[in-house]
Every structure is written in structure tokens, then in C-alpha cells.
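This part of the workshop introduces the protein records we will be handling. An example says more than a description, so a record of this kind follows:
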Amino acid sequence: MNILHIDSSLFVDNSVSRVLSAQIVDALRKSNPQAGIVYRDLGSNPPAHLSAAAAMAFRAGQVDDLTAGQRQEVEAIEESIRQIEQADIVVVGAPMYNFSVPSNLKAWLDQICQAGRTFRYTATGPEGLLKGKKLVIASSRGGVHGDDDFQEAFLKKLFGLIGLTDVEVIRAEGVNMGPDIRAKAMNDAAALISKRFAS
């Protein structure tokens, strides 16, 4: 089993999504001691926003006329796609920022959503090419939104585009509404992680 672990919170020391994603990966590793893990910290090392030149060059397989920076961007796209192609389980720490996701996570999603590589267009609409993988979203929210949100729906839609339709959401919300509510949200999420992923 190969696990791709993605964190995207801008915060390191006080990030709920980082705590949840680490707990999920730890539970998965305990259940599968031989699992390989690739870790990407998009908060501390954000990917470049997709440029038109790099996107077109990647899709055409032509990099000769690119600048050194654009070539590096194409290589980063290739690496991001290779990592998710090789993963069996993808764990994404995704805090809600302004009802959506951090821009660094969106930049990474723009890297991996590439027509002809991770999805293709058909007569009946787009078809994901990375089927058979499980996605676990470690979702955190400062307020309480329940299922009426854009953040989680957006992630499900984008990952569904490339074929990841087996999705589990571990959510802690209301974490900025006081220490008691935060503690309960974290404890409930930890209990769910243990139930769902621990051996």
C-alpha cells in the first residue's frame, strides 16, 4: 500500500487539519506496517500557480522553448501527477479558508488535473483515469457548516474528475468557537479515525 499524505494549512503549530491528517496516516500505518508514505507540505512549500506556458507545454510534451522556471514548473506538474498515480490512498488535510480551500491546495489540484493524463473527455463527459484509489479528507472549519458547504463539495468534485470517487471525510468544525467546542470536535474526529482506520 502506498499513501500520499498532503497537508495544506498555512499554520504549523496550531493546525487542526494537520493533526487530523497525521492521525489518519498513523492509523493507516499501524494497520499496514509495510505501507510506503509520500508526504507533501503545501503550506510550507507551496506549488507554483499554473502558468499558461507550462500547462500547454506539459500537454504537448514540448519544453524546448520554455524558460528555466517554466521547465521547473513542468517537472513539478509531472512529479505531482506521478505521486498521486502511485498512491493507493490519498490523505488530504484541508482547512476551510473563506468557505473554500487554501490557494496552495488549489494550485496543487491545478497541477494534477490534466486532460489526457489524469482524466479524459468522452462523448458522455469527462472520465477520471485514476480509479481505484481511496481519498480521505481531513477537514477543519472554524465555524459550524455541516454538509452545507463549498469546501468539501469542491474537493469531492475535483478529485472525482480524476477518478477518486471513494471518499471519506473526517471533519472537525467549530474549532474557533471556544476551547470546549474545539476539544469536543477534535475528540470526536479522533474517535472516528480510530473506528474507521485502526486495525
Notes: The chain has a mean pLDDT of 93. Residues 2-197 form a domain with the Rossmann fold fold (CATH 3.40.50.360). Helices lie at 16-31, 52-60, 68-86, 103-112, 151-161, 179-197.
